[in-house]
Design goal:
There is one protein chain. This protein has six helices and two strands; from the N terminus they run αααββααα. The protein is mostly helical and 187 residues long. It has one domain: dinb family like domain (Four Helix Bundle (Hemerythrin (Met), subunit A)). The longest helix is centred in the middle third of the chain and has 22 residues. The radius of gyration is 16 Å and the shape is globular. The termini are far apart. 40% of the residues are buried.
Length: 187
Amino acid sequence: MSATAPLHAVFASTRQAMEAVQADQLSAQSPCAEWDVAGVINHVVGGTQFFTAGMKGEQPSEGQDWAAGDYMAAFDQAAAECVACFEEEGALDKMVALPFGEMPGSAVMGIAMTDVFTHGWDIAKATGQSTDLAPELAAGILARSQQAISPEWRGPEGSPAPFGMEAECPEGACAADQLAAFLGRQV
């Protein structure tokens, strides 16, 4: 298995959730209080471009309203460019400067995977799709998140903290729901 196989799987999972969104669902509230489904889509495309820019040592482009156009094409292009930059020789070992710190490319890929996968969950939840997304992948991201996310990275919705406070999760919930609750979503 290649080092980027999980990243490919994350993009495939989120793509499936995005592809099922109907036009009248774009204004549906998402589990992220500040965004509707269109806002989450814009964040996923823009966030994917952000990680690519970071890996290339470039400034990310300003956000735009991809949800107003062919957001699937924008997502596919952003995902392909993102995967390609992580597949470059030495990409996972090089140090990458992001606005919130310097870290190895492998850590940047882990953050990108968590962000894209979790926002795929947000889209699925907001549009009434199954949230039991890629169980093995979700379990792996959950395990890595539980090791990497410390309390100082958490805060209430709308705070500068990147993650919400851990939420309750029903016993027996699927791994993707457990990950969402760990990252502060109401499941």
